[in-house]
Amino acid sequence: MPAAEEKTPPLVILGFDAGDPEWLARWAREGHLPTLAGVMERGCWGRTGGAELISEHGVWMSLFSGISRGDHGCYYFRQMKPGTYDLQPVTGLDLDAPGFWHGLRGGEKKVAIVDVPDAYPVAGLTGVQIANWAPHHGWISRDPAFAAAAEPPELLGEARRIFGPQMDLIEKHDSTFVEDRRLYRLLRERVEKKGRLCRDLLARDRYDLAVVVFSESHTGNHQFWKYRPGSGAPESEFTHAIRDIYQDIDREMGALLAQLPEDANVFIVSSVGMEGCYPADGLMEAFLRELGYQAPPAPAPPSLRPMALARRFVPEAWRVALSRFLPRDTRERLLADQFRGGSDWKKTTAFSIPGAYTSFVRVNLRGREPEGIVEPGTEYDALLGRLEADLLQLIDPKTGGRAVKQVARTEELFGAGVPDALPDLFVEWEPTDYFVERVLHPRAELVQRKPDFFRNSDHSGFGFVAAAGPSIGNVGPLTDTVSVLDLAPTFLSLLGRPAPGRLTGSVIEVMAGRRVPVGR
Length: 520
Known about the structure:
CATH architecture of the largest domain: 3-Layer(aba) Sandwich
Low-confidence stretches: none
Number of strands: 20
Strand content: 15-25%
């Protein structure tokens, strides 16, 4: 039999979307997550990290495809369209970074893939696939580009008939206690509903590969961050709400594993962790404008168009407050218009691409941008050096320390030369438990207003992986951080398949070091 059809133990991959690695490890030790604890005790576990986790968006794509951001180009849900000054939404449909199971097409191995973020059903696979059934961003299911889908297509209708309609659950940063109680109940209800759906699908056949990701941990992390122990909030029914949701997911994972073959190789993974942080997009734009990198637009002749009149006579703070009542696609369109017309591109050397937490700086490079003025080579490198030096001089007056944690050049992170789709710099601000209204530079004071999106948490640069099974070493905690790019080659190795040439990671020997003969 060809190596491509080698018989291998089943591979099961279960995911906590944004499962914080410290919480996962601690709650497993304390007995709150017995399913995870069992995998950790029987195998190995550790943190994931590296350049791929510079931004939350795109981590799942890198993890399951094995393809780096430097190749697939995803860094945010809204990005610049290459060759323009336009902003556009970005999904897994727009980028060439298929999950590692793409290579199983046309073979005998059967798959069950459910709710992997940024992954869509792949034709030619044997088995069942459902995407966007219960996503983190509830609003996206109302956008055709993010609609739920299945392979075979009739599976989606069957799931709706058996388990009822989808539940769109959206974070609300300014929620009331009553609203939080409702979302808490619905998130836990959706975890249970998702578990029943997955158990039904997995009971239909014996699968060589099963991948299931639960997104409720992501939504719960943000929604109940303000109540967590140590937050300063008084004890309440939500003090342990995040842990409760993790426990619910762990319970459903346990129920899934109980009905799967005992000889399975099992992985439990998370994308990123959590940390306290407030939006800093206003500071980034103020930095570039006040220090002369991003030039304001030239005065335009008076216009009687309604939007032009609104900008002239309605204060910006009012416009921001009113915009929250508009449909999301309308707000995105207005933001794109403002971005495109908000600079004099013929005088701008560097500009910010809107992003709430991690900031994205793009050089207005000749030959890459439509009206680029910075020459590639020496001038480009010198500009990046000045930007880095200026950013690292920013001081938070409340602490007297640096306001910026890290400035990372994309070329150095991903080694792919001057980026096409990615920004030129990723700027990470120091995490804080308060909103930073102003920072100081030797030549300027930079101020930002409270934005409409005012969430008090974001994501750390570490995820989590635990693995156990007949092919996996029982070595306990790993001392080295695991690169997410090494996971896809490892998964393929466990399935008896070689890694395609686009994958730059390596097989993790302790997680795929023992080949186990399988008979059927």
